[in-house]
Design brief:
The structure is a homodimer. Chain A is α/β, with parallel strands linked by helices. Chain A contains 15 helices and 18 strands. Chain A has three domains: about 150 residues, Rossmann fold (3-Layer(aba) Sandwich); about 170 residues, Dihydrodipicolinate Reductase, domain 2, CATH 3.30.360.10; about 100 residues, ACT domain (Alpha-Beta Plaits, 2-Layer Sandwich). Helices cover about 35% and strands about 25% of the residues of chain A. In chain A, α1 packs across α13, α5 runs parallel beside α11 and α14 packs antiparallel against α15. The radius of gyration of chain A is 25 Å and the shape is elongated. β12 of chain A pairs antiparallel with β12 of chain B.
C-alpha cells in the first residue's frame, strides 16, 4: 500500500448504522485508502453505554464514553447518534476543532441546519449528509451539485420506508391500517412507537432538507405542512385502486410562481397518484425521489431508504469525500441558500382533489353540491355517483352506504387549499351531505 | 448582487448542447452566481464556422474561430465540440493553462481518459463530465462520490436513447426494426448514419466510463465487448413478450470473483430481461442506470439520456461545481483507478441464455440436443417445444416453422460464453438442428 497520509476518523454512535460503518471501515480499509488517497484510521467509537450489546464484532478498546476527547484531534467526525442533543454540541465542537463532519441526523439538520452550516462556513469545514434524506439513495449530491445549474420545479418523494411498506400492503392485500402496522412492528419495519413515521414527522424532516437544497433556501421545519397516514383506511385504498390510483405518503417540494415573484411550498401528506406514475411502482420499504427540473426534465432516484448497512454505504461515501477534500486542501463549499424564497402556508397551495361524499339519494342533490363547489371557486373535473352494490368502472361494486344515500366522488381541477377546505365545510353543513367520507389531494404531472 | 469574484468561462462548440449552455448561462447568470459564489462570465464561444445557423439568439460578438486564444486566461473551459481532435488538444491546452474543464465528450473520455486525467492531476485541475455517461441523469457523482465507500457489484444501464426508442416501439407496436429506424430518423431520434447508436458504439463508450468509475480501474474502450441491435427482429421481440421478457440494449459492468482474485467484465449487447425488472419499464428515448452495490443494495437512476437542454443541465451543474472549487481553493481530486482490475474477454463471462432452434420433428431429437448441451457444460433450466400454429403459454400461437420441424426454446442456467458458443456450433452441425433461430443472453438479478 502506498504511504498515504493518515486521517483520524471519530465515530459517534454504534447503533444499526454506526456499527456497520465501523465494520466496513475496517474491512475495506486498503480499498478505501486507495480511493481516498488517505489512510482512514478509526480512532474510536463514542457510545453512551460500554456494555450495550453490539451487532458486529468490534474490538472493545475502540469504544469510549468520552466523546469530547475522541473529537479532539479527529480529521473527520461521523455523527450517528441521532436526536438533537448531545449530537448538536458534538458536531459544533468537531467543526470548531477543524474536522469535517459526516452526519445522517435528519432531525438535527432539519431543526439546526443553518447553525451547523454557518459554523462550518466560519472555519472552512464541510458538512456531509448524504444519508440524511433518503438513506442509501444518492440524492444530496445530485441536488446540490449535478442540478446546481438547473431550476428544480418540483420534487415528489417517497422518503419514509415504514409508511410505504404499510400503504403498499394495504394496497396489494386489501388489509386494514392497524393490522399492517402491527405486522410491520413485529417484522421490525415499524418502531414500537410508530408516531415519527406514521404521522409524517420523519418525512417532514427529509422534505425540509430536500427543499433547502433544491431551492437554495433555508426551509424551517415549522414551515413544512405535515399530515400522516393514520386516517387512511381500506375503503379509501379500494376506491383509489378502482379508479386506477394509489395512495402514497408524499413529500412534495414545489416552486410557485405568481407573476415575477416566486415562493415555495413544502408539504407531506398522503396523496393519490396515477398508477402509471413512476412513483406508483415503488413497493415495500423502498424509497424514491422524483425530480422535475426546468432543463433536465423528469428524473427519478430509487433505492433503499433505510437499513443499517444500506445507510452505512451513504455515510462511507461521505467519509471518502471528506478525506479527498482534506487531501486536496481548500475550504469547504458552504450551502447555497441565497435564493431566500418564502415558504407559503398550506392554505395558499393549489392541487387537485378527490372529494368523496355520502349524499341524500334524491333529485337536485348534485345541483346543490355543484353550486356550493362553484361558489367556493372549486372547479369540478369529474363526478361519479354510485349506488351501493352496483358495479363501478374499474371493476368491483360500489361500497355500502346507509339507506337512502348515494355516494358522490368528485374530482376537482386545481383549487386553492383554503378555498377547498372552506367549501368542504359548507358541503358538510349543507343539509344534503350526510357525511364527508374523504378528501384527498391528487398529485402528479 | 454581492461583489462576487469573476470567473471567465470559455465555451467550445455551439451545437444542440452548447447553444443551450450559452443561453442558460446568460439567462440565469444572477442565480448561478449566488449558487457558485462567483460571477460566471461567458468570455466567448469557439466555433468552426461563424456563419452557421444557431438555435438560440446569442450576441454575434461572443463567437470566434480562435479557440486557442479563448482558452488562454479562461478559468473554466467547457468542451462540447465532440469527436477526438481538436477537442483533445484544446482540453489539454486548457488544463495546462490552469483551467478546470467540463466536457460531455464520451468518445474522447473513453479513448483518451487516462491522458486527460493525468494531465489534470499534474497541475491540480479537475475534469468534470456528468453529461458524458447518461445525459441529464446524475450518475457520475453518485458513482464517483456517493458510492465511493461501497463496492459496486454490477451496473446494468440503458444508456442509449435511440436504441431504446427503437426496441420499445418494436415491443409495443410489433413493428420491424427497419421501419422503426426509418421513423426514428424522420423524427430526429436517430442520425442519418445510425451506426454509432444501433451498433452499440455509443453505449460502449458510456460503459467504459461507468465501469472505470464503478470499479476504480481504467477500462480501455477496446476491452468493452460490443454488439448492436440490428440482428433483433419482430419474431424475437414477439417471442420475448410471450415469455414475459423484453429485449433491451444493455451496458453491463460486472465485478467477477474467482477465489480471492477479482476481475471485471464490461459488455454491451441486446439482452432479455424480465418484464418486472425496473429497467423493463424504461420507455421511449429515456435512459436508466441500475446499480447493485454490496452495502447500498439496488439503486436506479432514471431520466433523459440525451437532448440539448437536458444535457445542458448536467453541463451547467459541472460549471457551478468547477466555480465552487475555484472559490474554495485546493487542488482537484483525481480519478480513483488504483484497483487496476483486469477486464476479462467475453468468452470468460457467464450469463444465462435463451437458445431458439428449429429442429427435426421426430422422436429422440430432444435427447440429442440435451446431450450436446450437457457435453458442452451448458445446463438446461427450461425447455419448451412448440409446433407451428399451436397455442403457447403467455398467449398467441407458436410461430410458423418449415414442414416436419418443431421449435425448441431452451433457457439455460449460467454458462460460460465460450462453452455456450462452442455448444451452439455443435448444435448447428448436429444434423437434427435445421436452424439456430436466435441466441440471446438473459440478464437480471
Amino acid at each position: 500500500m502506498p504511504d498515504y497520509r493518515r486521517l483520524r476518523v471519530a465515530l459517534l454512535g454504534a447503533g444499526a448504522v454506526g456499527s456497520q460503518v465501523a465494520a466496513l471501515l475496517r474491512l475495506h480499509s486498503a480499498e478505501l485508502a486507495d480511493r481516498a488517497s488517505a489512510s482512514l484510521e478509526l480512532a474510536g467509537i463514542a457510545v453512551r453505554n460500554l456494555d450495550a450489546p453490539r451487532e458486529t464484532d468490534l474490538p472493545k478498546e475502540l469504544f469510549t464514553t468520552d466523546a469530547e476527547s475522541l473529537i479532539v484531534g479527529a480529521d473527520i467526525v461521523i455523527e450517528l447518534m441521532g436526536g438533537i442533543e448531545p449530537a448538536r454540541t458534538y458536531l459544533l465542537q468537531a467543526i470548531n476543532s477543524g474536522a469535517d463532519v459526516v452526519t445522517a441526523n435528519k432531525a438535527l439538520l432539519a431543526t439546526h441546519g443553518p447553525e451547523i452550516f454557518d459554523a462550518a462556513d466560519q472555519v472552512g469545514a464541510q458538512v456531509y449528509y448524504e444519508a440524511a434524506a433518503a438513506g442509501a439513495i444518492p440524492i444530496i449530491r445530485p441536488l446540490r451539485d449535478s442540478l446546481a445549474g438547473d431550476r428544480v420545479q418540483r420534487i415528489m418523494g417517497i422518503v419514509n420506508g415504514t409508511t410505504n411498506y404499510i400503504l403498499d400492503r394495504m394496497d396489494t392485500e386489501g388489509a386494514e391500517f392497524a393490522d399492517v402496522l402491527a405486522d410491520a412492528q413485529r417484522l421490525g419495519y415499524a418502531e414500537a412507537d410508530p408516531t415519527a413515521d406514521v404521522e409524517g414527522y420523519d418525512a417532514a424532516q427529509k422534505a425540509a432538507i430536500l427543499a433547502s437544497l433544491a431551492f437554495h433556501t433555508s426551509v424551517p421545519l415549522e414551515s413544512v405542512h405535515r399530515e400522516g397516514i393514520t386516517g387512511i383506511d381500506k375503503a379509501m385504498m379500494d376506491a383509489a385502486r378502482h379508479a386506477g390510483l394509489v395512495i402514497k405518503l408524499l413529500a412534495v417540494c414545489e416552486r410557485l410562481r405568481d407573476g415575477d415573484s416566486e415562493s415555495i411550498s413544502v408539504r407531506v401528506y398522503p396523496a393519490l397518484i396515477d398508477r402509471t406514475h413512476p412513483l406508483a411502482s415503488v413497493h415495500g420499504a423502498n424509497n424514491a425521489v422524483f425530480v422535475q427540473a426546468e432543463a433536465a426534465g423528469n428524473l427519478m432516484f430509487y433505492g433503499a431508504g433505510a437499513g443499517g448497512v444500506q445507510t452505512a454505504s451513504a455515510v462511507l461515501g461521505d467519509v471518502v469525500s471528506a478525506a479527498r477534500r482534506h487531501i486536496a486542501g481548500g475550504v469547504g463549499v458552504g450551502e447555497s441558500t441565497r435564493a431566500n424564497l418564502a415558504v407559503v402556508p398550506i392554505g395558499q397551495v393549489t392541487t387537485r382533489y378527490q372529494i368523496t361524499l355520502e349524499v341524500d339519494d334524491q333529485p337536485g342533490v348534485l345541483a346543490t353540491v355543484a353550486g356550493i363547489l362553484s361558489e367556493g371557486r372549486v372547479s369540478i373535473a369529474t363526478v361519479e355517483q354510485t349506488v351501493a352494490g352496483e358495479p363501478v368502472p374499474g371493476g368491483g361494486t360500489a361500497p355500502q352506504t346507509p339507506e337512502n344515500t348515494a355516494r358522490l366522488v368528485i374530482g376537482t381541477h386545481k383549487a386553492k387549499e383554503q378555498d377547498l377546505s372552506e367549501t368542504v365545510s359548507r358541503l358538510a353543513g349543507s343539509g344534503v351531505v350526510e357525511r364527508v367520507v374523504s378528501v384527498l389531494r391528487v398529485e402528479g404531472e
